[in-house]
Amino acid sequence: MFGTVQLWGGDVGPRFDADALRPTLRRMAQAAQAHFAADQVEIVLHDGDDAFKCGLDGVLELVHDAGPESLFQQGIWWNSKERNAELGIADMAFCASAPMPFAQPRQRGRLTVFGRDPRPPDAALAAILEDLAEGVASTAERLIAARAQAWDRAEADAAEQLLFNLMASAPVALAVTDRDLRILHAS
Fold it and tell me: 10 Å Cβ neighbour count for 116?
């Protein structure tokens, strides 16, 4: 009799860790608010089909519509209540947004500030917003990598334990060796 056991979930794996990201999200949102004297700040993170949004509190919540794709592709600076209404912020005249540079194409994000009064373009403030967005992205990627490493280690440990359990219950003696034929485990 032959059988297989699937231990790995393929593409399923760790995503944004909302609890670990919360302090960074809160600090970056507060810094953006302070630099821009903004009335509202939002950070949006996409991971595949899921979109999450937070404000100054740094608490990510699942959202159905995170705004047009153009907000995630390049920085914007506009003074238009009509365009802001598309984002659900109809009473704000000013909007500046910076995309987050993630390495994985399935992950993207933006840091956006809103104000009631229009303001002229300011390259220094736009650069600060880009730096803050980059800080969120690098922290998120670092946390995702650490979580993926822990995930991989847990799966490897589970596979090893399963192998050892199968060997222990086998009706014949079995041995596992490395490529130099050193015995790693024997039943």
Answer: 12
Q: To the nearest 10°, report the CA torsion of 54, 79, 83, 49.
A: -30
C-alpha distances out from residue 4 to 1, 7, 83, Å:
10, 10, 55
Nearest to 112 by CA among 64, 45, 24, 40: 40
Q: What is the pLDDT of residue 129?
A: 94
Mean pLDDT to the nearest integer, 148-158: 85
Buried residues in 133-150 as b, exposed as e (16+ CB within 10 A): bbbbbebbbebbeebeee
**Measured CA distances, 77 to 58, 80, 114, 133, 145 (Å):** 23, 10, 10, 15, 32
CA–CA dist 90, 93 (Å, integer): 8
